[in-house]
Amino acid sequence: MDCVSGWFYDGKRFRRGTVGWEDGVVVETRSSVARDPIATGLIIPALWNAHTHLGDAVVTQELKGTIEDLVAPPHGLKHRILATAKDDAVVDAMHRAMTTMVRTGTGGFADFREGGLRGLKLLFAANAAVPLHGVALGRPVGLAYEPKEAAALLRTCDGIGLSAASDWPADDVRKLSEDARRAGKPFAVHCSERVREDIDTVLDLRPAFLIHMVRATDSDLERCADAGVPIVVCPRSNAFFGMTPDLPRLLRAGVEVWLGTDNAMINAPSMLREIEFAYRVARLRGQVSAREVFHMALRGRKLLDSTAFPGIRVGEPANLMVLDLPGGPHGHASLMRAGESDIALVVAGGVPWHGAQFPAMPRRRKASRRPATS
Ligand SMILES: [Zn+2]
Questions:
Q1: 177: how many CB neighbours lie within 10 A of its CB?
Q2: Closest of 318, 315, 326 to residue 346, by C-alpha
Q3: Residue 95 carries which DSSP code?
Q4: pLDDT confidence of 359, banded at 50, 70, 90?
Q5: Nearest to residue 109, comparing CAs of 50, 161, 187?
Q6: CB 89 within 8 A of CB 97
Q7: Ligand 1 centroid from CA 182, angstroms
Q8: Closest-CA residue to 191 (of 161, 155, 169, 171)
Q9: Rounded distance from Cα 373 to ligand 1 centre (Å)
Q10: 328 CA to middle of ligand 1, Å?
Q11: What's residue 161's pLDDT?
């Protein structure tokens, strides 16, 4: 049995002691400190990145322009580049982003994968050798519903993730959401990012969660809270486009908030950086507790399992991070200041990863001439 010692998070507070695991599963938590732990420090469950677009990690140039210029479909910069990028380049870029996630203590993510079936296949290729639980939310190639394409997508992916409902003909987006529901898979969509959208129209699609809602009114947020629809916030992405998410207002409305890093061409997919920024930006509008921000960075796992536990306990997967930070009752506050250099150990699927011993980039495959999307 491998083990780590220090202060571990039990879902409510940090407790002094030891966490041991075997075959990828936590098998022991105890209050005494082990004699030979493989790392010591502040021990937390792996973080969960509730919203990514990993494919646009292939865009490496300096970004200039508005949100419409850069990310809006079908003509934003990212879509133009993805349409002509080589498959290998997109896979390598996504793999690099996933490696960043493992190194920075993320155990899983929900990706909004552009490019239809082909886009999904590239995501699966990039994820194959990386110890990360990727949830692939696909979408049709274009902004129109076609039954055969929707059926093929839903056989392949974990669910549907769209740009914004208002980008679509109303009838088409409704059919897509109904197909997802019939398949028993989540349907999720960006909402009220560029402009306020009609919340009743969006909630009628029965989304598993919404992303952004920075342009939403108080009553829109209360409608989401009443409907039990979580909202994923991506504060660094919003700030890049000149917006400030009002985290205290979301919580006052009773919304369940999850945290994500959004476009990989804008933000490195490091949840530690997102946590730090979210905590700071919340202070612009009041205050959100360090514990709440930490839980925002864990809750996205509920997409996989609605009863997911936000702490370390026997029987949970051994996906952990050990940080060289002060523990004790102020562990939550320490986390708000954590940086990559504070990481002592990452345990992914029971395998400890120290320093630079991270999954290698995939060997180069035969170059493909096919575009990643069209
Ligand atoms: Zn997004």
A1: 21
A2: 318
A3: H
A4: low
A5: 50
A6: no
A7: 24
A8: 161
A9: 17
A10: 36
A11: 98
Tokens 């560029």 belong to 194
DSSP three-state, residue 353: strand
Q: Which tokens belong to 255?
A: 């919304």
CA of 348 to the centre of ligand 1 (A): 25
Q: 74 by DSSP, 3-state: which?
A: coil
Q: How far away, in angstroms, is 204 Cα from ligand 1 center?
A: 20
Residue given tokens 């491998």 in the structure block: 2
CATH number of 2-46+310-353: 2.30.40.10
Q: Are 334 and 75 in contact (CB under 8 A)?
A: no
| Ligand 1 centroid to residue 119 C-alpha, Å | 16
Cα 319 from Cα 44, distance rounded (Å):
9
CATH architecture of 47-287: Alpha-Beta Barrel (3.20)
Q: What is the pLDDT of residues 207-230, one digit of tens each?
A: 999 999 999 999 999 999 999 999
Lowest mean pLDDT among 153-157, 282-286, 365-369: 365-369
Q: How far is the CA of 260 from the centre of ligand 1 (A)?
A: 9
- Between the CA of 333 and the centroid of ligand 1 the distance, in Å, is 28
Q: Calculate how far, in angstroms, residue 112's C-alpha sits from the geometric centre of ligand 1.
A: 7
Tokens of 52: 């990514």
Reading the block at residue 75, the tokens are 């003509």
Q: How far is the CA of 52 from the centre of ligand 1 (A)?
A: 6
CA–centroid distance, 189 to ligand 1, in Å, is: 9
